[in-house]
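Lest this sound abstract, we think one record worth quoting, the chain in one-letter code, the fold tokenised, each line plainly labelled:

>
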Amino acid sequence: MIKKIYLVCFSIFLSIGLIEADPIYLGIDVLEQSGFRAIGGKRIGLLTHPAGLNRRGESSIDVLRRAKNIRLIALFGPEHGIYGNEKANVPIDDKIDPRTGLPVYSLYGKYRKPTAKMLVGLDALVIDLQDVGVRSYTYVSCMRYAMEACFENGVEVVILDRPNPLGGLKVDGPPLDREWRSYVGAFQVPYVHGLTIAELARIAKHTPGCMETSEHIRKNGKLTVIPMRGWRRDMLWTKTGLRWVPTSPYIPDLSAVLGYAMTGLGTQEGGFSHGIGTPYPFRLLRYEGKSPEQIKAALQSKRIPGLSYRIVKTQSATGASLSGVYVSVTNWDRARPTELSFHMMRLAAVWSSSNPFAASKNPELFNKHVGSTAWWDEINLRGARARVDAFVDQWVKQARNFQQQAKRFWIYR
């Protein structure tokens, strides 16, 4: 089964290009090679998780602990914790790390933002988080909240940059209306934003109104970015030569990263399941009462560029046999990843006995993820008659405009 997963991960990106030999040096690698010059002589905290590794596979925790000219005195953990073994949406308590003896402050428990007490004694907070390039993934929100707290308390923020696994050129999906800013949407960017975590940090630092702090605090906060070396915007993860480390329990591999961008919004309401609990998370679509053949035919009729579909038989986590429709990427350059989710929503309204969106018990959560009040009004009021293509065309134009505006924050050209 494990071999099958890795074969799938490879095949979905086969058309995009082979792994390149030129080495990529991550932010943590560049920092170490400089002799930790940017944080030399400072007392630091580190916000990270299991994917916070250098290119040799060593934890950033260990890299910073052995540095002789700095003092690591505290760890901070995002959703899923510093070891990645905590469930989604489950609060995490502060604790003492048994491996290092350092205090671990949870930023996904009682507090989402570091308190002044947590930051006492720190000269700088180093942030080393691997993002997946999708707005609703909470690590970029955790970073922004941490930046606000540090700026408010006179603590420098140091971002160790990492690749966007979807590359730096693909921008897609609805932008976020300001009224829906939340922990699953801390930045007003398209759903697939095409930026690295450090570039998002630059947006937070230099864009009026992007942070919840006063403008005076935002302008005077100190942000230091340690860029990667060797990464280009046209690189998807497969071109980096780096090993993927699961960023959360439901994102175990590269297949799930791409699937999250394509189907993550399509199961917010309506009845579709997307493969969680199978070997194909976010890639295997099922709908109660509809056969895989019916789902495949319905999706093919939408003629979504760059995607194809095949029926797969597999097993659930409990060992039960099941089958569903696997979503393949045939041409990443042509694909508009989020488009599939909105066709899924419309199909759910077609196949349901009544519009499931009109009967939603939690429209606020739906809107926090999708981010578009206009789309909510469309699917809520029109249901099976929702004009998906018109919205997709509008979002494509908005994504192009966003990318042009965002270029001033690019680190990599």
Residues 254-407 form a domain with the Aspartate Aminotransferase, domain 1 fold (CATH 3.90.1150.140). The two ends are 39 Å apart (CA to CA). DSSP finds 13 helices and eleven strands in the chain. The chain has a mean pLDDT of 93.
